[in-house]
Amino acid sequence: MDVGQFGLGSYEYGDKYISFKHCNQCGCVTHYTATEAWDSGCLAVNYRMFDPREAADIDVRNLDGADSWTF
User: Fold this and answer.
1) Which domain of life does the protein's organism represent (predicted)?
2) Which of 20, 43, 46, 50 makes a 20 to 30 Å CA pair with 58?
3) Given a cut of 60, is residue 1 above it in pLDDT?
4) Rounded to an integer, what is the distance from CA 69 to the centroid of its chain?
């Protein structure tokens, strides 16, 4: 990913388990990572930022973050 001249910013809120990364120019969230407080290795990427042809062959797993916390 090319972050360009403006770079990425990040923010955490609440329990600070997740660090959201966003473009410093437009504010769009590009991805998030687990923090040391969670230590899960969890990562998510906003593939809406990609050209659809680049993401066409990627297997998508949807996480039920509302109830079961399972894929």
Assistant:
1) Bacteria
2) 20
3) no
4) 17
